[in-house]
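Whether sequence alone determines local backbone shape is best considered at the level of individual chains. The sequence in question and its structure tokens are set out directly beneath this paragraph.

***
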Amino acid sequence: MSILDLITLLIFLAAIFTLINITALKLPSTIGLMAIALMMSVFILILGYAFPAVTRGAEHIVEEFDFKEVLMGVMLNFLLFAGALSVNLKKLLEERVPVLVLATVGTLLSTFIVGTLVFYTFPVLGVEIDYIYCLLFGALISPTDPIAVLALIKKFGLSKNLEIKIAGESLFNDGVGVVVFLTILGIAQASFGGDAAGHGGHGGGEITAASVALLFGKEVIGGVLLGAIFGFLGFRLLNFIDNDHVELEVLVTLTLVMVGGRIAELLHVSGPLAMVVMGLFIGNEGRDEKLANATGEYVFKFWHLLDEALNAILFILVGLEMIVIANTFSPNSILIGIAGILIVLTARFIGVSVPISIMSFFRTFEPKTIAILTWGGLRGGISVALALSLSEFTWIEPVIKETILFATYCCVVFSILVQGLTMGLLLKKN
């Protein structure tokens, strides 16, 4: 299929599935679309037992999408920028301490808790995984997905302070999580990656705490600085245009995202963090009236439409990815999936409760903040994309890649369908 054919198919499915969800299921958009895509995937897999060509054809189409490249290389920057545009900057600055602590300390704590629990639990289920790969799984599954979280919290009447904590943490811990993942992946490759061709053996690379800190700092600080520079320049340019040419304002914001993302890639700094910071600079929520008017309403309508369309496509892709991931299913896969879900929830609870318990000595938190942040910490397409990216590395054993991918997919599906659908019950009791 050509690129045009693939895009046409995705938009067609997005329109049909959205119509079904609105008229029949009436679920929150992201949950409904993924549920329909999952049901279609299951139907195709069952049909494949009688007509194998159907499953093979569906697998071929899904694999042509290259989920990792589509999300990480194309969609993610647009989605993060659009999400950050609607965040209230004033409220975010008021809650900057808990947001930053949760996004950094919470994510790192969760990464090591998940990695440690997986290291000791999965061998009992018949899968031996080196500790570095357990940490890799912890890094890709610990960040909450801002795309899923932002879509969910819009549906509930949360207090502004709690809403900004959830939204801010999900936006920033996504960028931090990707950096942690790449850092651990770099350590694993230096240790086990072999020669340049990717053949096994010891990589021979020297790993020190200083080199890890330097890599982490460059990605995070570089991404934030790049986003601030582009955001400031973009805001000044939009202020100069001053709504006289709305189409030019849209083109300017599109250019900022695309050029900024490309420069982040060339400089090896965090593109996701750059997009979030850029969006906060250009967004008008929480600014005084004069500054708020710099970015016209037309720009926000455009980005809202783009955000909704890309969200629909993303969660349909997550659901359809089951057709490919089903190939990794083994007799103990169900136990691995359940264990992964329980471990991730445990790590999320600790990663949230420890920082908040310490910070509660200095500031007041809303009732059930820990419970809401724990259960509302949805995982999404980013975790699946990072897990799929491991297939590129031939020095990682196939069984390790398959186990990580299957456990990741189970955690993502559970968080969106189960946690997402029951979040309202938790909030009603609050």
